[in-house]
Amino acid sequence: MQKKPLSILLGVAVALMPVLASAAVGLPESVEVDKGEVETICGSNEPEWREAQTIEGVKIQESLRCMPDNPAQIAAEVKGTNNISMETLMNTYYAADAIIKKNDMDGDGDPDLIIIKLEVAELNGHSPDFDGLVPTFDMAPGIQPGMWVFAPKSRGMATNSFVGTDANPLLRAPSPPIRVEQGDVVWLQLENSHYFPHTIHLHGVDHPWIDSSGEGNDGVPQTSDKFVLPGQSKTYEIRPRQPGTFVYHCHVQTHVHLAMGLVGMLIVEENRPNNWVQTFNVGAGQVRHPSKAVLEEYDSEYDLHYHAMDKELHGIIQKYNDPRLIARKMNREYDMTDSTEDYHTLNGRSFPYTLKESIIVAEPDQNIKLRMFNSSGEMLAVHTHGHKATITHYDGVEHNPNAQIMRDIYDIAPAQRNDLKISTKDDGLHSYGEGVWIFHDHREKGITTNGMNPGGNVSALVYKKYLNEVGLPKTIGESIVPLFTKKFHDRKYPVWQNIDAWNSLGEIDGKDYKAPPAAAPAPVEEGPKGIAFYDDVPEDNSISNFVWGLILGIIFYALFLKREMIMAMIASARGDK
Ligand SMILES: [Cu+2]
Question: 228 CA distance to ligand 1 centroid (A)?
């Protein structure tokens, strides 16, 4: 008699099991997420800027990238702002005294006294006038870290126009590569247009410790130099006896001032007759007027400046305007030893913007000179796809030509420089042939932006036949167009949405999350045939599961109630007594 309630309970439980099981596999549906607006990728610059041309007698190489340099600006950089027409000068943002070149002291056809003026600019800083940043420089779509850079002395406003906040083209990251000729008398004048003290240290460049007037000339406040205070200026005197790829950087609170961007390449070109070198290479990348010595051995030349940023440090100048507060936050509260590099850049930008400015354009059987510089806080391991380059110079000093080695990974310690020779000879060693070959840091964090991939310092060596008419690589993989959205860099973009015809890997709404997402449909066209049981299962699983469970429950319950009778029947069938 007591068995009955227990039997009923068990029966009900069995009957409800399919319903519970159905609830557990009831998965949220994939939803399609709006991917936001794609930027105009190319087309902001004048197309004729990409052509090979001669301005003011200056030969300017072709530049097939999507955002080429302004040729008038290159003419000013080669001839000096004092030796060009007013018309050419007005086509640039240079101040009239930004680059003065004169005095052919050795009579070899090029000027030997070079006066270069540098200012200090803040990019993406807090505006005292409105709730936004100014002047703005985009590292990637919607990514605007606060930075300080050395910039050539410019004319007019810091912004491009009255209506926007975009920085004028001379105010940008990285601090520009500077080129001088071996033996030149160079006066590098720092006009401190910033709110903090700074100096310039000439790293690796031959320079006397004190200048001709007995003042410090090494840029180090603790040993030789007074601070160059806001509004002051100071001239560093250089007469480099050795050529090479070197560095200039601020030496005040170096750990943060260098990380903020006050660091650039300083290249001393070998002395040759009639050698007018391109004093600035704003934005780095292709050198459109290579020196005589470079052209003896190479078809083209590129400056590749790698830098990395901790968003916490670079956010400080976006929160405060008062220099006293910024000094305390940056130099007393911020702890560099706890920092993490979040942004990894090549020539001031991250992928995909690197494809607009920092591609290397090649043709078969060429020699290309790369000058690589690492101003990040960690070791880099740059890898070239499809090519093994020869390392010709370390830190500006030529490696014994008989001992030069070829690699496909180039390790570069912080502040180090590697000069590379890339040969595009298709022999399976130097090059594997034509294509769109990326080159990137092989520390995996180097290919991320704020920890998200694709991003970081990735760019590409592109053979001319794989470049389209606006200067973008003709890629044949997944489309890169969606990466040119703020939404992607704002982490709002689904990882795999629309990669398949079924849109099986869209997004689900996290708030209603109940169970793991459904598996992708198996890539078979038809399911197994001929099993009537499966074919007859209705589409709606929860109702059919319930009906089948109920029938099975009733059967089991009936069997349970009649168990004695059934056992007796079995016994009699077996012939038991
Ligand atoms: Cu400084």
Answer: 9
